Amino acid sequence: MIIYMCNNKNPYIICITNRLLCEENFLERIKKITDTDISYLILREKDLDEESYFELAGSVIKICNDAGKKCILHNFYDVAISLNHKNIHLPIPVLKEIDDKKLNFFDIKGASAHSIKEAELAIKKNCNYITLSHIFKTDCKKGLKEKGIGLIKEVKEKMDICIYGLGGINEKNASDVIKAGADGICIMSGFMKCDDPKSYVEKIRSSI
Known about the structure:
Number of domains: 1
Oligomer: single chain
CATH superfamily: Aldolase class I
Number of strands: 8
Strand content: 15-25%
CATH topology: TIM Barrel
Helix content: 40-55%
Order of helices and strands: EHEHEHEHHEHEHEHEHH
Distance between the termini: 30 Å
Number of helices: 10
Mean pLDDT: 94
Low-confidence stretches: none
């Protein structure tokens, strides 16, 4: 099953979670986010062990399904397989190690790329999309130099894969990311901290 993860007329807005940034109940925040015009939600909770992630993933998948939104699990591919959930996003080291049989279980496969070489690996592994980061300065990557929109342009020119910009993206610079060739944008802190997710998404959508 091939799922194309690009939409030239309507760039994707993807929420990446981090419950440690969330001031309210995390599942309540997820409900509010999935009641907006987001395209996908990536459940990225890097501090959890596999068992804790399994428990959280079941709850988040149900919320997303009830709202008609796609949930993409992150890193824990065995958890996704156990839940019979066919959407996964993998860091490059995990993408390198996963065996083909397990990887082929998934209909949607994404990868976290930070360079041309990593984007090439994602294509070789038949990923549907990559997140490309970090585009702008962000508190999540303090001390690391941003890649800039030039990386988006370079990957877009050389490769045929859907690209979602990630890192320091907000309503002021989102349009620059799309103009550079990205098929969508990923936002973490904004979704976790904003007062009203619905109006926040409307503001982002109007900017792109």
